[in-house]
Write a structure and sequence with these properties.
It contains six helices and eleven strands. It is α/β, with parallel strands linked by helices. It has one domain: HUPs (Rossmann fold, 3-Layer(aba) Sandwich), CATH 3.40.50.620. β8 and β9 form a beta hairpin. α2 packs across α5.
């Protein structure tokens, strides 16, 4: 079984987000970037499948400029076998990303595609579902448990009513929840080994895919600053303020 993992380079989750002065987007210059956290769960699951003897090869794919090579090197340092960078200087929307991944899937012919359930920069939660539709493959979204036996995928996913258990046939698309596993840290020896692992670069412009944005961002602004809270001495004072000052009761 060949497993392909989609990896996105995003602003590190520990960084305080700042809006650009021209309000055209979020500041990414001189800001720490890292692997999208849910994608780390997808990477870990692919590596576990390789260690269990279920997967024969694992491949990481990222779409972006040359700087995106760092997240692919991180994936290979964790244990991924090889990587592919779909190079573009354009910021792609989920549909365009799904189209690029579809082209790579058709070329690589993996049996399983793993993605993070969503990216922390846009929170779109669309790429996996769109890719499933484009390939006409079964999909399992935000999975928290995975078991593979006799070419059947047994998955668990959290829904509002509780835990839903499903069976899917291979090939399939799975998007991974943070509860699926605990991603490992890359050791120093593996970081050094990752530098020698193959990383292929393809040009998105040569794939013949329409990546024109369908959405125009007019302005990005920070949320309004919250007013300071008020400390009350007892419940009676709280009720008085809610009733006569805030007038919410």
């Amino acid at each position: 079984m060949k497993v392909l993992v989609a990896v996105k380079r995003v602003v590190d989750y520990k960084v305080q987000i700042r809006v650009k002065s021209d309000q055209s987007g979020v500041e990414t210059q001189n800001v720490k970037m890292s692997v999208n956290p849910p994608d780390e769960n997808a990477i870990e699951e692919a590596i576990k499948l390789k260690e269990q003897g279920v997967a024969s090869e694992t491949i990481a794919v990222s779409i972006g400029d040359d700087k995106s090579q760092d997240v692919l090197r991180t994936a290979m340092a964790m244990g991924i076998d090889r990587s592919i960078l779909a190079k573009t200087d354009q910021l792609l929307e989920p549909l365009a990303v799904a189209k690029v991944l579809k082209s790579i899937v058709e070329n690589e012919k993996p049996d399983l595609v793993l993605l993070g359930k969503q990216a922390i920069d846009d929170d779109a939660n669309q790429t996996g579902q769109l890719l499933s539709a484009l390939l006409n493959w079964p999909q399992g979204c935000f999975i928290s448990k995975l078991k593979i036996e006799n070419n059947l995928l047994s998955i668990s996913r959290e829904i509002d009513e509780g835990i839903e258990n499903l069976e899917l046939t291979i090939p399939a698309i799975l998007t991974c929840d943070l509860r699926l596993n605990t991603p490992r840290f890359a050791s120093l020896p593996n970081i050094m080994k990752a530098k020698k692992k193959p990383l292929d670069v393809i040009d998105v412009g040569e794939l013949g895919i329409d990546t024109t944005p369908k959405i125009k961002t007019i302005k990005v602004i920070e949320p309004p600053t919250r007013k300071a809270g008020i400390i009350v001495s007892d419940v009676k004072e709280l009720i008085q303020k809610l009733k006569y000052e805030a007038k919410v009761i």
